[in-house]
Amino acid sequence: MLNREEIKNIIPQREPFLMIDEVEEYISGESATAYKNVDENEWYFKGHFPGNPIMPGVLIVEALAQTGAVAILSMEENKGKNALFGGIDKVKFKKMVVPGDRLKLEVKIIKRKGLIGVGEAIATVNGVLVAKGELTFAIV
């Protein structure tokens, strides 16, 4: 299990944009499983939406991307580098994420060629599918 400080040793994101709280497990270059504890005091709930707070879908995708980045940037040859979006494909949102939810984020690297790759990403809350899709990344 990695905590937030250990996660920061792998990926470059920092508060308030660090979207994962802990990593349950990861296999360098292959996969990662992380969690985001969605707190009512998150900065984005002030405007999305007052009186009806919903975690923006783009931030769920960002949390998935950061989870995938743990898998790919933990590789020895990628230490100190960054993973940037190259594409977001086939993303579907199935359920709203609200304060109090514990978002489980799972990313499996399904393709890699040089500095480009694709991760299959799945987000769930209590075993219920929230979002899924494919995230293309580039290592820089």
Characteristic terms for this protein:
alpha+beta; Thiol Ester Dehydrase, Chain A; 6 strands; 16% helix; 41% strand
Task: Give a structural overview.
This protein is an alpha+beta fold and 140 residues long. The chain has one domain: Thiol Ester Dehydrase, Chain A (Roll), CATH 3.10.129. The chain contains two helices and six strands. The chain has helices spanning 4-8, 57-73; strands spanning 22-27, 31-37, 83-93, 102-113, 116-125, 128-139. A hairpin with a 3-residue loop joins strand 1 (22-27) and strand 2. The mean pLDDT is 97.
CATH topology annotation: Thiol Ester Dehydrase, Chain A
Distance between the termini: 26 Å
Judged by helices, strands and strand pairing, the structural class is alpha+beta
User: SSE order in H/E notation?
Assistant: HEEHEEEE
Oligomer: single chain
CATH-defined superfamily: Hotdog Thioesterase
In the CATH hierarchy, the architecture is Roll
